[in-house]
Write a structure and sequence with these properties.
mainly alpha
């Protein structure tokens, strides 16, 4: 409501971006609804969308699921090549299952945008690197923490 009342676009953006900093999935999900409306500049909405999601396990799926469930509505609203950046939301994951899901979901969609395939490849590489790092370091970290 504060963002709707604000006339200064910079302040309005700060308010919308603040919505993306919630770390409770229900609040995050409710906050994303503004992106599908027409109350705010589409560029501000996109920037706020990319701010959603955190490293907290319970929060990771919120932005990713929102994009998957609202792909067509987002594509109708966002500027022509904005869809190219959306695969980056999946880069927060660190497991084979989500990597496969992101690759499947974005494979054909990413090719529709200039830079989309590259962004998807980078997101998938980020997930793979995280997985490899986790696999290589998890035993020693677990052994270290078992002493405390």
């Amino acid at each position: 409501q504060a963002a709707k009342k604000e006339s200064d676009e910079a302040v309005q953006f700060l308010i919308l971006h603040a919505l993306s900093q919630f770390r409770q999935p229900r609040l995050e999900k409710d906050s994303m609804a503004f992106m599908l409306g027409n109350e705010f500049d589409v560029h501000q909405s996109l920037a706020a969308l990319l701010g959603f999601g955190s490293f907290a396990p319970g929060d990771r799926d919120v932005a990713y699921d929102f994009i998957k469930q609202n792909w067509n509505a987002l594509m109708a609203k966002l500027p022509s090549d904005s869809g190219a950046i959306l695969p980056r939301v999946a880069a927060i994951y660190c497991d084979t299952q989500h990597r496969a899901d992101a690759e499947e979901f974005f494979r054909t969609r990413a090719t529709q945008f200039s830079g989309g395939p590259r962004n998807l490849a980078q997101a998938l590489e980020t997930i793979s690197i995280c997985e490899a790092n986790k696999k290589a370091n998890q035993p020693s970290v677990a052994e270290f923490l078992s002493r405390y």
